[in-house]
User: Which sequence fits this backbone?
C-alpha cells in the first residue's frame, strides 16, 4: 500500500520568494492550459486531452524560460489538475447540477499552496 508523508516546511525568506515564484508559474500554466482547452472547443469544436495539453508545456518553456525553474513533473501535475477539474465540471453538467466553469480560487487560498513531488523525483 502506498504511504504518504506530509511535511510542514519552515523556509527562509529567499526560499519563500522562490516558492511563491514557482506557485505563480504553476497558476500561469493552469490558466494557459484551461484557456487552451476552452478556446480549442469554442473555435474548432476540438477536444484537447491531458496528454496533448501536457505537450504544450515544452512549447511554453521555450517561450517563457522561467518555467524551466519548476520541475517538469510539477507542471505535468498542474495539467492533470485541469483535466480532473474539467472532468468534474462536465460530470456535474451531465447530472443536471448548475455549476461554475472551473473557478480558480484567489491567490491567497490555501488549496493552491501545494506541490506534488513523487518519491522517484526526490534524491
Assistant:
Amino acid at each position: 500500500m502506498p504511504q504518504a508523508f506530509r511535511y510542514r516546511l519552515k523556509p527562509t525568506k529567499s526560499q519563500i520568494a522562490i516558492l511563491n515564484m514557482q506557485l505563480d508559474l504553476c497558476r500561469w500554466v493552469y490558466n494557459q492550459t484551461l484557456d487552451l482547452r476552452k478556446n480549442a472547443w469554442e473555435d474548432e469544436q476540438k477536444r484537447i486531452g491531458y496528454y496533448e495539453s501536457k505537450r504544450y508545456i515544452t512549447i511554453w518553456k521555450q517561450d517563457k524560460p522561467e518555467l524551466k525553474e519548476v520541475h517538469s513533473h510539477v507542471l505535468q501535475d498542474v495539467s492533470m489538475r485541469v483535466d480532473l477539474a474539467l472532468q468534474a465540471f462536465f460530470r456535474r453538467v451531465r447530472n443536471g447540477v448548475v455549476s461554475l466553469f472551473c473557478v480558480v480560487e484567489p491567490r491567497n487560498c490555501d488549496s493552491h499552496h501545494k506541490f506534488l513531488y513523487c518519491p522517484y523525483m526526490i534524491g
User: Anything to note?
Assistant: The chain has one domain: 13-121. Helices lie at 13-44, 50-63, 72-94. The mean pLDDT is 81.
